[in-house]
Amino acid sequence: MFEVRGLKYKYPNAQDYAVDGIDFEIRQGEIFGFLGPSGAGKSTTQKILIKLLKDYQGEILYRGKKLTEYSDEFYQDIGVSFEMPISFSKLTAMENLEFFRRLYKETVDVEPLLRRVGLWEDRHKKTGEYSKGMKIRLNFVRALLNNPKMLFLDEPTNGIDPVNGKIMKDMIREFRAQGGTVFLTSHIMSDVDELCDRVAFIVNGKIREVDSPRNLKLKYGKRVVRVEYRENGNVVSKEFTMEEIKTPAFFELLKTKDIETLHSGETTLEDIFIKVTGVALHG
Amino acid sequence: MAKLGILVQGELDRLRKYNLFTATTVVLLLWVGMTWLLEAGEVTAFVPLILLMDSTMMSSLLVGATLFYEKKEHAINSILVTPVPETEYIAAKIIVSVFNSLLTFLALAATAYFLKGVTFNFALVAAAVVVITAFHALLGIWFAFFSKNFSSLLVNLMLYIIFLMLPPVLADLGIIGEKIARFFIILPPDAAGTMLQAGFATVPLGRLIFGFVYLLALSAALYKYIVLPGFNQYAMRETGV
Ligand SMILES: Nc1ncnc2c1ncn2[C@@H]1O[C@H](COP(=O)(O)OP(=O)(O)OP(=O)(O)O)[C@@H](O)[C@H]1O
Ligand SMILES: [Mg+2]
After folding, report:
1. What pLDDT is attached to residue B169?
2. What is the CATH classification number for the domain harbouring A187?
3. Residues A190 and A232 in one domain
4. Looking at the partner chain, which of B78, B232, B236 has a beta carbon nearest the beta carbon of A100?
């Protein structure tokens, strides 16, 4: 879908590049994630890809054609969820959606979407009276309004409770299952781990690593099996590497001891992020 | 151009929902009431003055107000990612401003005609209102570009009006000589005043035509060189409104 080469961007009046020479591609039908700490340049990259920031250096191809050559019809194809609420506060959710719905050629029925994210009951409430989480959920519905082929989701679960977060993640996966492509940014490790086919680690406007979460774990992670068992009234914990679990010692332990828990210990994506970039995702 | 109607309707709808329409209606009723109370002779002096205020200052302010809340609520971002070109979005704002000014014109003209029996050159004044409003709506967008918040927009517009109205006033008082005063028509508020005055009294034809051509040319230049090129950057700039 997207090919990005040598992308650089500096805000007017800014000293440093917010995006500092990055290359990546987003493949058709995948969920591609940008994982990075606050200020890394995630939102800036998204704003460039959706043609809101224009004076960038480098090349961006969308479906093989330069992004700059697309007219505003480009927006028929894409859906955008911003990191901040974007609705008219004195209009109800329905009035907001209705206004935007009429600006597109093709649109979807909003009722199933609003029901799914739990806003149907409050659809006639002014969005100014919505909570932060409700506004972000409405953003998500707004993004899906024009039946887009590609979704841009900037921190889609930020400020969302776990139940609704799970619903939204399910919806994102369903969108991909129907052939949609997703660009997603986050500083929340689990979002990226659960959703993304591939993830880019971004710090200070630079990409440090791009791969699938699974491959990253294989490459940087340490995989062990941790066994906890009871011995003489004490809980004892023992770790075995993937090689060691094939040895008799491991089976002997399982057979003879009072096993309490058995875990496969994977290095988390967050640990790997720190290992690769030397920067923590939070704080 | 297909979406223009929807955008205009959306703007009008929001003027109502954000109570801006109520505010302008209250002011309008005030002016209608004052017109009604005046002597017929005073009406012809009062109406052009009100129309001047309404088409200049009020038009700029109203456009600025809508821009500020759209930016503050980031709704502008949502509009920018629809298949609507910026040209149509700006056009919708101008059309709505012109519509509002014409409403004021109609109310005042009707009051003057039906209640006071005062007539004036309705067509000429209506045309003047359209051109003056279009220019000042664009000016309002431009001022919004460099005003930090709504009150600074208000102050900047006041300075614009006071600063540019002052020379003609000084001329009227005889402080500035006739020779120089003739050229004050290049100040947009003065040109606007002349255009409106022409509907009520005799104004030299050359000055009248100059006023129209001049404000139209200024509008075109403002749109092409300042408002349209600067719009995207303005919309994307994070302000602490
Ligand atoms: N409108 C702007 N003007 C100037 N600088 C900006 C602007 N927006 C962002 N920046 C700067 O650009 C850099 C990248 O910001 P960006 O918003 O892309 O980060 P982010 O990765 O999305 O962070 P977060 O997780 O906090 O949303 C930061 O240093 C930020 O201060
Ligand atoms: Mg961000």
Report:
1. 83
2. 3.40.50.300
3. no
4. B78
Q: Which residue ranges in chain A fall short of pLDDT 50?
A: none
Host H or E run for residue A274: helix A269-277
pLDDT tens track for B126-184: 999 999 999 999 999 999 999 988 899 999 999 998 889 888 888 878 888 888 888 88
Distance of CA A8 to CAs A25, A183, B74, Å? 15, 18, 25
DSSP string for B60-114:
HHHHHHHHHHHHHTTHHHHHHTSS--HHHHHHHHHHHHHHHHHHHHHHHHHIIII
- The Cβ of residue A274 has, within 10 Å, a number of other Cβ atoms equal to 13
Residues A179 and A246 in one domain: no
Number of domains within chain A: 2
Indicate the SS3 state at residue B125. helix
Which region holds residue B146: left if phi is over 0, alpha if psi is between -120 and 50, else beta?
alpha
> For residue B238, how far is its CA from the centre of ligand 2 (angstroms)?
13
CB atoms within 10 A of CB A170: 11
Asked whether the beta carbons of A84 and A133 are under 8 A apart, the reply is: no
DSSP string, A20-51: EEEEEEE-TT-EEEEE--TTSSHHHHHHHHTT
Pocket test for ligand 1, best of A43, A50, A56, A82 (most atoms within 8 A of CB): A43
Domain interval for residue A22 = 2-217
Mean pLDDT of chain B: 92
Task: Write out the E strands in chain A.
Answer: 2-9, 19-26, 31-35, 57-62, 65-66, 78-81, 150-154, 181-186, 198-203, 206-211, 224-231, 234-241, 258-265
Domain count within chain B: 1
Cβ atoms of B56 and B161 within 8 Å: the answer is yes
**How many whole angstroms from A43 Cα to the centroid of ligand 2?**
4
Interface residue A103 vs chain B (CB under 8 A): yes
CA distance B60 to B76: 19
ipTM: 0.90
Helices (H) and strands (E) in chain B, counts: 13, 0
pLDDT, residue A283, reads 53
State how far the Cα of B232 lies from the Cα of B236, in Å rounded to an integer.
6
- Torsion from C-alpha of B173, B175, B176, B181, nearest 10 degrees: 0
Residue type, A53: L
The pLDDT score that the predictor gives to residue B240 is 41
Q: Which of A272-276, B14-18, B215-219 has the lowest mean pLDDT?
A: A272-276
| Those residues with Cβ within 8 angstroms of residue A190's Cβ, 6 or more apart along the chain or in another chain | none
Cβ neighbors of B197 (< 8 A, separation 6 or more) are: B48, B203
The reply to whether A183 falls in a domain is yes
Tell me which ligand sits closest to the C-alpha of residue A49.
1
Do B34 and B46 meet the contact criterion of CB atoms below 8 Å apart? yes
